[in-house]
Amino acid sequence: MSRTVSSWILSSARNSIVLQGKGRLYSICVPNRNKIKWKLLSKTHLYPAGSCILNDPFPLKKVFRHTSTEEEHFSFQLSPSQINDILRAGELSHKTLDLDGKNANSVLRFESNQLASNSPIEDRRSAATCLQTSGMMFGVFDGHAGSACAQAVSERLLHYIAVSLMSRQTLEEIELAVECMKPVQPILQWHKHPNDIEYREITSQYFENLRVYWQHLLDLDTELGFSLEEAMISAFKRLDSDISLEVQAPQENELMRNIALQVAFSGATACVAHVDRIHLHVANTGDCRAILGVQEEDGTWSTLPLTRDHNAFDEFEIRRLKREHPRSEEKTLFVNDRLLGILMPSRAFGDVQLKWSKELQHSVLENSCDVEALNIYQYIPPNYHTPPYLTAEPEVTYHKLRSKDKFLVIASDGLWEMLSNEQVVKLVAGHLTELNVQKPQLAFEKPVNLGYMHSLLLQRKNRGTTLLDQNIATHLIRHAIGSNEYGEVDPEKLAAMLTLPEDLARMYRDDITVTVVYFNSESIENYYGNN
């Protein structure tokens, strides 16, 4: 193996002094002894992180992951098959069925995958077909301070959206069935990976709170119901409110109490797409991202962003928060590009530390048993005067699909930290073309030079391994962590990134979750033709 990649990793490891305190993790990086720089290992929190009680759904074999940074114990040796085993462990794909041949689904198929950096992984994903209404939904959820909140949101949010979209008659029929203790027709058909986990112990409580929500919708006494945008906003806000109330309610069952605590005191960003014929709605809270891949008439590709990253780099978010808080707090709302100096995203589920009053936080934690065992601590940041500072209210984007809209990519920020929107579209377009044994015509190809030609030769040499991915999400993850400066996969770098010790992996890459939805262009064209 080349010394270049291994020495790069080992040099960083030797020059990093890791300080691990009570739930906090920092690193002093000393690339130059005359310059000391602080680098935060966790992308989201300075305050102690809550951990989930669940095991990693995609555990890596110990032979692949190491905890020592000593050179004699630090090995990057992975065979191509071992690399593929790691990358493909979370693969999920589903092709939609054309049942009647008349109203073909605008979703042709979707492919998804995950790769962990944190142990256990804090990202989650969801995909489901609506059974009581029309359409399909796809969600990506990026957890922080543990996976508990992302887990709960991934299980519950699509149900809340589906209920919000139901007609009054359907809600009344479901409520009557529950009252009469009769079977309730399923609301969603889930498309899950065999290793996807769920909080089975608390499912009954989740259902009861969902029922309270649809009873509230019935009490609104409106025949028109919500628009799709209103339904998504209502579902996001109601679920976040339920997460907050559940942890405040008396709970005799200790396990359910602990889960409620971990869900509320951890956090998650969320991006959910709803596709119904030519109607695409994307609701986003936080810094997950959704983009469209568009193929123009001349064969070139372009990107169409459907979300904004809600963080300190977004001017709209800065102005929104300034409007919501006194002028005296303008300089302390964002510190070091983090909300109150703590959180990267400015919108998220959970994270009650940034939503509740100091008194409520103290009351809930004081009355809870052994919260330190759950890695939950009360931490009040400086300049915490006018909560809430954080919201789960999403920004909803509507787009009318056209035949040239070929695919939708939803991913956690672990992908976007490594690849630009344009790079992602280029990779998906190239993958489509490779499957069709054609060469893509890309509008943003790099100019040809000797280095790039060498890279193409390297690609041809490695074609047997780099083009084995049938799942496009795997293809994107492989490139995200293993690409060289020319955008081609370097097998040595890929192996190095996959064998980083657990205490170093988070310094170089985040959890990555990707879902790619392919659209049926013929179905979309037929819809316009028939209307």
Automatic annotation (TrEMBL):
InterPro entries: PP2C, PP2C_BS, PPM-type-like_dom_sf, PPM-type_phosphatase-like_dom. It comes from the Eukaryota. Keywords: Hydrolase, Metal-binding, Protein phosphatase. The keyword Acyltransferase does not apply. Transmembrane segments: none annotated. GO terms for cellular component: mitochondrion. Residues 107-519 form the PPM-type phosphatase domain. One of its GO terms (molecular function) is [pyruvate dehydrogenase (acetyl-transferring)]-phosphatase activity. Belongs to the PP2C family. This is PDP2 phosphatase. The lineage of its organism: Eukaryota, Metazoa, Chordata, Craniata, Vertebrata. The gene is Pdp2.
